[in-house]
Amino acid sequence: MDNERYSRQLILKGFGATAQNKLINSRVLVVGAGGLGCPILQYLAAAGIGTIGIVDDDTISLSNLHRQIIFTTEDLDQPKVKVAAKRLGLVSPEISIVEHQLRLDKNNIFNIIESYDVVIDGTDNFDSRYIINDACTFLQKPLIFAAVSGFEGQLAIFNVKDKQGVATNYRDIFPTPPAPGEIQNCAENGVLGVLPGIIGTMAAAETIKLIAGIGQPLINTLLHYNLLTQTQYTLNISVGHDYVLPKSKADFILMDENQSHSNAPIYEEIDIKRMLLLREQDLALVIDVREKHEFPILDQDKFLQVPMSEFNTFIQNNIEAESIVLLCQHGIRSIAAAELLQEKYGAAKKIYSLKGGIAKWKDHFLKR
Asked: Do 192 and 277 belong to one domain?
């Protein structure tokens, strides 16, 4: 251990070499190298967490840089995991960085998280959030939960027993996932750049406290933070009874599949090639459900613009096209619109949603 590197921590009363050794011998997995993940990773590496795993399947885009400050303009289009690992290695060469350049799903999550002591969820979508929670709960892995939206953030610690021997999980707050498009993420709702830095740093602090055994970590406690007023409050989390958790790995996969089949959508998510083919062959009506102020502005001869705020009124009229493709900025509102059409037409029409939205396929729209 490099005593000089960690000297300011080593001299802390109530911390010292004992706590520092706990950090060095710990293994922490950070899921998501985005707005939350970047400050979490930077401070955990600087603090001396011995092994840090990074999970992310995304590449760096220009819209990331206002909040994901581990990256620079020169890193655009590079994998987040590789760039983050390189930067962390420069901060603390003596720690181990494990790269997981993939998206966690029900088939790979157990193999990845089993070797870590603590998992931190810095994702921004509910599918990942519930998969991570259920797997960590089954494996009894401490889970640090962090989330941001707009000007507000939340933080909690799950799967750790309090003094009464009680441990809660994410489903004790939110038993079931919201419907697609019901709650916007930061890509849709926006986020002030400093907010994930604040909540991410808090999450790193809670991780360090939990591993080092100092202070009062947010066990069974949800912290809510408001940036505009600089106020925060905490809520005690109680064990709920209106959900079912998997009792085995096989049950974990089957439960997910059963839920998917029971709510199987009639609409289909497609990529840009399929959408362009449908449009060029005049096989589909393509509807842009973004609001009128959003960019880039698409050719209205090729794309019908019906803002989501007007969509319920629009579908009161009959749509003659047998195939309909919906698109938005990130592929979230288009799913919500697809479900509205599905509710009206059922299987009578072929309904599609552009997966990832215009942001993912922006170059294709700019070229045409």
From this structure: no
Hey, which residues does 225 pair with through a beta bridge?
153, 232
Tell me the residue type at 64: N
Torsion (CA) 167, 173, 175, 180 in degrees, nearest 10: -140
Q: How many domains does the chain have?
A: 2
The per-residue pLDDT for range 330-365, each reduced to its tens digit, is 888 898 889 889 888 988 899 999 998 998 888 788
Q: Is residue 1 part of a domain?
A: no
Q: Please name the residue that has the structure tokens 């930061």.
A: 186
Measured at the CA of 142, the angle between CA 140 and CA 144, to 5 degrees, comes to 145
pLDDT in tens, 121-174: 999 888 899 999 999 999 999 999 999 988 999 999 999 999 999 999 999 988
The CATH number of residue 314's host domain is: 3.40.250.10
Stated pTM of the model: 0.75
Alpha-carbon 356 to chain mean position: 14
Residue 339 forms part of a structural domain: yes
